[in-house]
Write a structure and sequence with these properties.
It contains three helices and 50 strands. It is flat. With 543 residues, it is mostly beta strands. 5% of the residues lie in helices and 51% in strands. The two termini are 52 Å apart. Strands 2, 5, 6, 9, 10 and 11 form a six-stranded mixed beta sheet that branches. A five-stranded mixed beta sheet has the order 13-20-19-15-16, with no helix packed on it. Strands 30-37-36-33-34 form a five-stranded mixed beta sheet, with no helix packed on it. This is Kirre like nephrin family adhesion molecule 3a.
Length: 543
């Protein structure tokens, strides 16, 4: 509105307006300032800077962009755009526009370059490996624009043969580079330093990370467990046999990651329970060069125990529902998936996959585990299916002439309906009161009931077609309802309406003899189409 007033207040001779300076394509490194020039002679109206088609501010008002300033001598027509501390978001196309002259500069592309983060070598600063093993080094250079190039250097020489991949980040501009270098055992010496250098146009000199190679001989360890298998509550002996050069200095025992303080030598004895089946016992052997850790589980017999609890799901209609249920038990257990109240086995795996679920698939599912001759366990989950609303109502409802009448439609919908509307003739009512008509909506445990109440029923009400429509984010459903005079059992063929409902993307209505209802149906359908053009469903009356 303000801009419109400006256009009315000023008359500018367009031919006299000339761009002395126009913005031109620029490349800048993120964090540096940049100025886009714009000088206009013969013009004293409103100047507007535009980025990617969006206005940034009028004249020198850049209050919405704290890093942007319009600089220069206003009296000389200078409106240069200064961007301080450029960021990646500044990357785009800029124009300088003389509004009253309806003149704009040529578009200028501002390209913002971003240097890579400091490269990171996995395992740095020291990578240790056993004698005889080959070496694999991986270097990451993240968040660069353009993507960083990576080279590997040892003793001043570039090492060839590295493989690399580039990944475009979610912003669609920056990229991350990963380089992997393989070196055979015959080409490595302990103490060598290998450097990863990452560079791009924003960092031509590159950034470096260095790793030192340390070749060690760890203890060779064998951990034995006797006896196995064993019942819960029986005694088990762990023996940690090690060969090391230099010799072993000490042993350390742990169970499930927790230290065992009363075991210090190469042997550990304990009465086992079910936890020894899932929590391994580890023996760590140390010499002057380092440690070797080895662990073993015990083959303990026990009944079913839940290892990963299944989670209830809410999925869209037509999508796959995947439940996961992990049990542990010993000896081997059997898993059975069933729907509560049904005797059909759906799966004998940890995972139950329901392909292309329908709304009738919603309900409770049970994951049951059986260890033969030991025990049984089960866990219940709920499946909720999202889909378009489903309306179920009596298509012919009754009322008394001269009295208050009601027609109802019952809506099942997950997620709940966003809107519910009644329409008849040229009227649409979602809630509240309009004339003789009132719409009320009540939520219940099973769904939503929408009621259209009519005060003082008149004969025309029995000739009217009422349309109840419900929407949610997945679609809509429509029910056509007719009001019949209570106690009048006379059947009139011309008023017979047979409705075929198709769930999904369309609804169809058909009539056998539409002589009386054609005009009423047309009015309802026209009303719905005009007021709700976004409906992804169609309602058609066929002769």
């Amino acid at each position: 509105f303000h801009l419109h007033l400006i256009l009315l207040d000023f008359k500018v001779n367009r031919s006299s307006v000339v761009f002395i300076q126009q913005p031109h394509d620029l490349v800048v490194v993120a964090g540096q300032p940049v100025t886009l020039p714009c000088s206009i002679t013969g013009y004293h109206g409103t100047v507007l800077w535009v980025k990617d088609g969006l206005a940034l501010g009028v004249n020198r008002d850049m209050s919405g962009y704290p890093r942007y300033d319009v600089i220069g001598d206003h009296s000389k027509g200078e409106y240069h755009l200064l961007i301080q501390r450029t960021e990646l978001t500044d990357d785009g196309s800029f124009e300088c526009q003389a509004i009253q002259a309806a003149t704009r500069s040529r578009p200028a592309r501002l390209t913002v370059l971003v240097p890579p983060d400091d490269p990171v070598i996995i395992g740095a600063p020291v990578v240790s490996l056993r004698a005889g093993d080959s070496l694999n080094l991986t270097c990451h250079a993240e968040n660069a624009k353009p993507a960083a190039s990576i080279i590997w250097i040892r003793n001043g020489e570039v090492l060839n043969g590295a493989a690399y991949t580039k990944t475009l980040l979610r912003d669609g501009r920056r990229e991350s580079t990963v380089s992997t270098l393989h070196i055979s055992s015959s080409n490595i010496e302990t103490g060598q330093q290998i450097t990863c250098r990452a560079s791009n146009k924003a960092a031509p000199n590159g950034k470096e990370a260095t790793v030192t190679i340390d070749i060690q001989h760890f203890p060779l360890v064998n951990l034995s467990v006797e006896p196995q298998p064993v019942l819960e509550g029986n005694l088990v002996k762990f023996h940690c046999a090690a060969k090391a050069n230099p010799p072993v200095t000490h042993y350390r025992w742990a169970k499930g990651g927790n230290m065992i303080t009363d075991a210090t030598g190469d042997t550990y004895e304990v009465l086992v329970d079910h936890s020894f089946f899932t929590e391994p016992v580890s023996c760590e052997v140390t010499n002057a060069l380092g440690s070797t850790n080895i662990s073993r589980n015990v083959d303990v017999y026990f009944g079913p125990r839940l290892a990963a609890e299944p989670q209830s799901l809410q999925v869209d209609r037509g999508s796959d529902a995947v439940f996961s249920c992990a049990w542990i038990g010993n000896p081997s257990l059997t898993i059975v998936w069933m729907k509560r109240g049904h005797g059909v086995v759906l799966s004998n795996e940890n995972t139950l996959t329901l392909k292309g679920v329908r709304q009738e698939d919603a309900g409770k599912y049970v994951c049951r585990a059986v260890v033969p001759r030991v025990g049984v366990g089960e866990k219940e989950v709920m499946l909720t299916v999202n889909g378009p609303p489903s309306i179920s109502s009596t298509q012919t409802q009754q009322a008394l002439y001269g009295e208050k009448g009601q027609i109802k439609c019952f809506i099942r919908s997950t997620p709940p309906p966003d809107r519910i509307a009644w329409s008849w003739k040229e009227t649409v009512l979602e809630s509240g009161t309009s004339g003789r008509y009132t719409v009320e909506t009540v939520s219940t445990e099973d769904g939503v009931i929408s009621t259209l109440t009519m005060s003082n029923i008149v004969p025309a009400d029995f000739q009217t077609i009422y349309n109840c429509t419900a929407w949610n984010s997945f679609g809509s459903d429509t029910e056509i309802i007719r009001l019949k005079e209570q106690g009048n059992n006379q059947f009139t063929p011309s008023l017979f309406l047979q409705r075929q409902k198709h769930r999904g993307d369309s609804h169809r209505m058909s009539t056998e003899t539409p002589t009386v209802l054609d005009s009423t149906c047309d009015a309802v359908l026209h009303n719905v189409a005009q007021l709700y053009p976004h409906m992804h469903k169609s309602v058609r009356v066929s002769n």
